[in-house]
Amino acid sequence: MSRPLLIGLAGGIGAGKSAVAEAFARAGAWVSNSDAEARAALASPAVRDTVVSWWGPGVLGTDGLPDRQKIAGVVFGDPEQRRRLEGRLHPMVHQARAEMVRRASAQGVAAVIVDAPLLFEAGVDTDCGAVVFEDVTRERRLARVLASRGWTEEEFDRRERAQLPVGEKRRRSGYVLHNSGDRAEMAAAAAELLERITRDAQSADSQRLGSRRNKEDA
Questions:
Q1: What DSSP element (H or E) covers 47?
Q2: What angle do CA 19, 6, 178 make, to 5 degrees?
């Protein structure tokens, strides 16, 4: 039973990583969505009690659960509070991802896509065998965010400044996927790239195995 290859997704805010993750899923990979896993963790009774003890009941919504928009208003303006929240949520997200990898391994899945907004910032890239950068212009990303999330351009810039610069994300990624917005093209490109990454990983494993055997025979 071999461990699936973990492939991280990187890109700027509004790049559409979820759509790319879906394209990889159609090509046979499983997807670990860190944002969904963080939402589930945030809604748990233990985390609810924690955030209320930190910031008061004002961070709860009308349903009695933590309101993500209210919490975002707290943490994105205060790096210390953001690190505090991440320190509470990230271990739970990591545990959920590890469980998915175990299930994927048991079912013979070759790759698990890690869709994590803070892939590099949280050090999740170090768990990945490869990282794919989704290349989308700032103009397209901004337009998408303004239309889908109701942010202002100032809010977009504020949140992007809280992350690693987009150029640095691209530099630290081993592969680039251009997202034109055409789903058919993306599906084909994702399938081709997944095959390439898997092939590269197998080649690297073979080289490491050969190198180890040479050292043992020396």
A1: helix 45-55
A2: 35
Neighbouring-strand partners of residue 60: 66
Would you give the DSSP letter of residue 176? E
35 contacts: CB under 8 Å, gap ≥ 6: 115, 116, 117
CA distance 37 to 206: 34
Structure tokens, 11: 């890109």
Strand 111-115 versus strand 5-10 pairing type: parallel
Question: Residue 53 and residue 50: Cα distance in Å, rounded?
Answer: 5
Alpha-carbon gap, residue 174 to 131, rounded angstroms: 6
Phi, psi torsion values for 11, nearest 5 degrees: 165, 170
Instruction: Please check whether residue 174 is in contact with residue 131, taking contact to mean a CB–CB distance below 8 angstroms.
Output: yes
Phi, psi of 5, deg, nearest 5: -75, 130
Instruction: Quote the tokens at residue 198.
Output: 């898997």
Tens digits of per-residue pLDDT, 106-163? 999 999 999 998 899 888 999 999 999 999 999 999 999 999 888 899 999 988 988 8
- Report the DSSP pairing between strands 30-33 and 111-115: parallel
The DSSP code sequence of 93-156 is HHHHHHHHHHHHHHTT--EEEEE-TTTTTTTGGGG-SEEEEEE--HHHHHHHHHHHT---HHHH
Q: Which residue has the tokens 């999330």?
A: 149
pTM (2 decimals)?
A: 0.84
